[in-house]
Write a structure and sequence with these properties.
- This protein is mainly alpha-helical.
- The protein has 2 domains: 41 residues, Arc Repressor Mutant, subunit A (Orthogonal Bundle); 134 residues, Tetracycline Repressor, domain 2.
- It is 66% helix and 0% strand.
- It has 9 helices and no strands.
- Helix 3 packs antiparallel against helix 4, helix 4 packs parallel to helix 8 and helix 8 runs antiparallel to helix 9.
- The longest helix is centred in the N-terminal third of the chain and has 27 residues.
- The chain starts with a helix and ends in a 5-residue tail after the last helix.
């Protein structure tokens, strides 16, 4: 039943954004009474937090798959990861928005949601990016030796590009912008 509730919440989110995810609508979609949800989740925020966690897991899986398909070269793998990140934001726009909507921030979540480790959500997906940047540095393909800082900068740029691309699709984005961001922020040698 827990997975059915999460699947219904994901569908509602995909079709109508975070505001569409209500316990009433979830219950209607699953075919249960709204109070039945409380046997699995304490409240709506807990449902959304679980959905955020699943979405980060999905993102991590997509990033790892893109790197594996790219082959052994660390720079090619990093570029594939960056493209997969942007692709994820395009394929799942509502889920991507909810990932960074503040629900999992320690400052904004309810105490019961924080207790479920939401403050660490996304760390594993970020870890994939960190591994890719570190691999470039270890291979001598990047000029810096601080993979965490470089990965954090690249993540910020990828997130910014994903958000801006979504809200400004008519902007004349330069060809090759993603490659430029990856090269400059990961300090790739060429």
């Amino acid at each position: 039943m827990r997975q059915d509730i999460l699947a219904a919440a994901a569908d509602l989110l995909d079709r109508g954004g975070e505001a569409a995810v209500t316990l009433r609508e979830i219950a209607l979609t699953v075919g249960i009474s709204a109070p039945s949800i409380y046997a699995h989740f304490t409240d709506r925020e807990a449902v959304v937090a679980a959905l955020v966690s699943e979405t980060f897991d999905l993102m991590e899986s997509d990033l790892r798959a893109a790197m594996e398909q790219a082959g052994p070269d660390p720079v090619t793998r990093l570029r594939a990861l960056a493209a997969a990140y942007l692709d994820f934001a395009v394929r799942w726009p509502q889920r991507y928005r909810v990932l960074f909507g503040g629900l999992w921030s320690d400052r904004t979540v309810q105490p019961n949601v924080v207790a479920n480790s939401t403050s660490r959500m996304g760390h594993s997906a970020f870890g994939v990016l960190l591994e890719a940047v570190d691999a470039c540095q270890r291979a001598g393909a990047a000029s810096d030796t601080d993979p965490f800082s470089d990965a954090a900068g690249l993540w910020a740029a990828l997130h910014g590009l994903a958000q801006l691309s979504a809200v400004a699709p008519l902007f004349p984005w330069p060809a090759g912008l993603l490659d430029q961001l990856v090269s400059r922020l990961a300090l790739l040698r060429s």
